[in-house]
Amino acid sequence: MAAAMLAGATPQAEAGAGTSAGSGAGASTAPGSPLGILVPHAGLAYSGLVAAAGWRLVPDGATVVILGTNHTAAWLRGVGAWETGRWRTPLGDVAVDAELASEILALGLPFGPDRAAHLGEHSIEVQLPLLRTTAPAARIVPLAVGAGTGTGAVAAGERLGTLLARRRSAGAAIVLAISTDMAHYPPADACARVTQALLPAILGLLPAELARAEAAIGRGPGAGAGMACGMCGIEPAVLGLAALRAMGAMPGVALASATSADAGADPRRAVGYLAVAFGG
Questions:
Q1: pLDDT, tens digit, 9 for 90 and up, residues 140-170
Q2: What is the CATH number of domain 32-278?
Q3: Residue ranges of the domains in the chain?
Q4: Model pTM?
Q5: Buried (b) or exposed (e) across 124-151, using 16+ Cβ within 10 A?
Q6: List of long-range contacts for 266-269, beta carbons under 8 Å, 24+ apart
């Protein structure tokens, strides 16, 4: 099913693809086994090829801590974990790493169990067919992120990253995944410009700078026609970049970018997509 959906997608990498931190455009050098990835979460026919550029790097058997965008749980004021069990996909079930989930919950607030926050949410489940394809033995810790973009979110990310770094140093294979799309609903050329504008803070692991830049693009006077946000997953991105920095990640590598218009959607009302890998 996932393969069929991906076969119909035709997004091509735009100016962001193949750009590494501190360099201009060119061929990317993606890490073989990353500490983290940032991937989009639209329908696979639209963003699947871009997302696959990140998921193909995840080693089989790893645990992937997935920071999902919160589109639906209006009550969430923290990080809601699905702490045990399995998630079902058309390609088979994906097990939750209950031991690691328990350790994350032991960090205390803003981390807490909240299965309800995931029930109407697509930003994690849409990733799982890709994960099942590239790393069928991988496990997950699903985290719905609604912790804001301020100092509290950065501090929570640092605590999470410190935990994951400690587990990795003890030999655990752990990857942190940030699930987010980029600009929503401006024309396609504006989507591409927003991705390029936000890319330096993403690649540079600069969560506070990213939050400021996204707010200026998405809601400031220069937002432009149709712009709903510069990045729908700004909250998991801020928390995730702080976590990756605490894990010792190196500056990121942009793997691919596109817009929904590249897959045949209306170019007058588009959504941007980006995939990034972070090595250690």
A1: 999 999 878 999 999 999 999 999 999 999 9
A2: 3.40.830.10
A3: 32-278
A4: 0.87
A5: bbbbbbbbbbbbeebbbbbbbbbbbbee
A6: 267/187, 267/188, 268/187, 268/188, 268/226, 269/185, 269/186, 269/187, 269/226
